[in-house]
Amino acid sequence: MTTGTTEVRGDHGASGARQLRDLFARPGTVRIIGAHNPLGARLAERAGFDGVWSSGLEVSASQGVPDTDILTMSELLATASSLVAAVGVPVVADCDAGYGNAHNVMNMIRRYEAAGIAGVSIEDKRFPKVNSFIPGRQELAPIAEFCGKLRAAKAAQTTPDLMVIARIEALIAGWGMDEALRRGEAYAAAGADAVLIHAKGSSPEPVLRFLERWTLPTPVVVVPTTYHTITATELAEAGAKMVIYANHGLRAGIAAVTETFASILRDDRTTGIEDRIAPLATVFDLQGMPLQKRHEAEYITPYASRARAVVVPGLPTAPCADLLEEQSTALRRADIESVTVAVRGDRTRAPQDVTLLPAQADAAGAVLALDDAYLSRTVLLSGDAFVEGEPLRRLAAAGSDIAVLVDVSAGLGAERRSDALPLALDSVARDGRRIGGALGSEVLAAAGAEADVEFAGAAAFSAAGFTALREVAEKRRANDAEATLADLLTDLLVAGHRVHAVEIGSGWLELRTPEDISRATELLATPEGGQ
Hints:
The chain is of the alpha/beta class. The protein folds into three domains: about 230 residues, Phosphoenolpyruvate-binding domains (TIM Barrel); about 35 residues, no CATH class; about 220 residues, Alpha-Beta Complex (Spore Coat Polysaccharide Biosynthesis Protein SpsA, Chain A). Helix 5 runs parallel beside helix 6. The longest helix has 20 residues.
């Protein structure tokens, strides 16, 4: 499978019509292929085709109707326009018989040209036409009438770049080679930029005879749908300038999808076809997601949901899979975009919507294992704590480079567990309320008896704050010292970094012992215990 990065095309540089003119002016064959939606157009461009054929047959089939002028010009133009917007190669549109008489053709030219279409193909059949490969009625328009359409088309375009291709259907209708040549010469004299000789036999001989007898400088386009044994190189050597593979994407898709659907029903699952279908990563790439992510990082104001969350190792006791799932749910409710787990434990039962890092021995290792991210915030949670959604939302929305959740419920001098991280704030407590600065409280230091709050198991970092965190983690690793998240926060305070406090009085649980985990699991299992 061809790979690469697809970007949504917003600026084609030279116009599609100018690109097509340049392709016709250069040596060699111009090869284009049919599509009926932007995804197919991008696959054509990625494969290396010179341009895209907005195929009337493909568009009609994709809408479940015959290719007999049932769809309107506006419907077909909408598809062709979407192809132009999706790719940087020129788009040539199949415009059937011009959707009516010369008046309709002039309207069509003005609208297709304004949409950025590089070229249009008009066939010399009576309106409404029937697809050339359908047996039965194939009625041709009189030469004079069709020449009038061509002159009207050239008169209607506003720049000289748009190419008008006159499609000759004489061989399709069984009118013979002489009639095909006579019509082609008349169409060239009427101003056609190229003529398309169409045929439906399995042998390329009629097309090769036309090319041999064609003496005018007007280039010739061919469509080897049924005479597919001849190569584009051989057709070029015979005098063809453009080769159109008009409907092969549609037909390939029908065959592949039919087999895939049958396989799923036959096997009662999709395992048997997973290695034969495109991964979702390819779909996202073709949609242009990499470019959208770059634009998102550059132009969209950061907010809480553009944070990533990482659960890092705490004390040796690891939370069970059920608690990890509850924590992941709480993070999602806090509008946090992605969740990564780096803790020990039963990783086979990790929630399906999280990314697993290789299990790390300590928080420092987990921090160093994280690659740089486009996200504006990184929320770290210690694996020995559970934090509810609302405190996490407040933490992720904090605007400082480093912010920590602190539990203010116990107050100054409270007796705390020996493995807790007590902290001192620059604010004061009075009558059950804390009075801080205009921007809230800041953590002064990790403290002992004079501490008045406790670290509540979660911290948030801007890009600059995360860089500082990595620096202290690297120092720990250089000294072969393991560290919890609390240890890393202490190192940041010692290094003089400003740390903002997000104060809470509840909404978190410590998971320091097996008994803690058992109680938390029971609590979260009750309806009133959940969020």
